[in-house]
Amino acid sequence: MQGTVTAVARSGEHHFSKVPVASVELVAHLGVAQDAHAGVTVQHRSRVAVNPDQPNLRQVHLMHAELFDELDERGFTVRPGDLGENITTRGLDLLALPRGTRLQLGASAVVEVTGLRNPCGQIEAFQPGLLAAVLEQAPDGRWIRKAGIMGVVCAGGTVAPGDAVQVTLPPEPWVPLERV
User: Fold this and answer.
1) What pTM did the predictor assign?
2) Which of 99, 114, 169, 175 would you call most buried, defined as having the most Cβ atoms within 10 angstroms of its Cβ?
3) 174 to 59, 100, 102, 144, 170: CA distances (angstroms)
4) How many whole angstroms separate alpha carbon 86 and alpha carbon 91?
5) In sequence order, which residues have a C-beta less than 8 Å from that of residue 96 and are 6 or more positions away?
6) Are residues 121 and 45 in contact, defined by beta-carbon separation less than 8 angstroms?
7) Where is the MOSC domain (predicted)?
8) CA-CA distance, 94 to 57, in Å (whole number)?
9) Contact call for residues 149 and 82 (beta carbons, < 8 A)
10) SS3 assignment, position 44
């Protein structure tokens, strides 16, 4: 399996959206350099309030560009970085990857997938109706979270649009992604 990085973004402050940039530097065990969510322990404000000492399983947020296409067809305008993601990809079904999958981004950066992003009310504030478009309920009652995946940085490196994304699946049995 292989995909492509189509955009990268970061924000040094806790804003909902991130700013697209020419490249980002991933730092092992921390996340995206100069991004407010980088750290060994959790940096998301709501999670810090619950337990500031918990490990940061959300160092990097990856989103599939195919979601933007789907949202566009439904009348929403969403660009890379708008939903807070650091890395936008194309050509990979990120949501179907099992926990523990390793993604090599570019020449040397490696991110291990930890789980699904749990869409929150900030998405609704960004564009009314968008939360329902990225958080749907299946006929069997389970929630389908489409707002990307989260991961931790295992090996650092520079990541830029056009970089290849190589997928290494973990040993079986595979564990499906859950919200983190």
Assistant:
1) 0.96
2) 114
3) 22, 8, 13, 18, 7
4) 17
5) none
6) no
7) 19-168
8) 16
9) no
10) coil
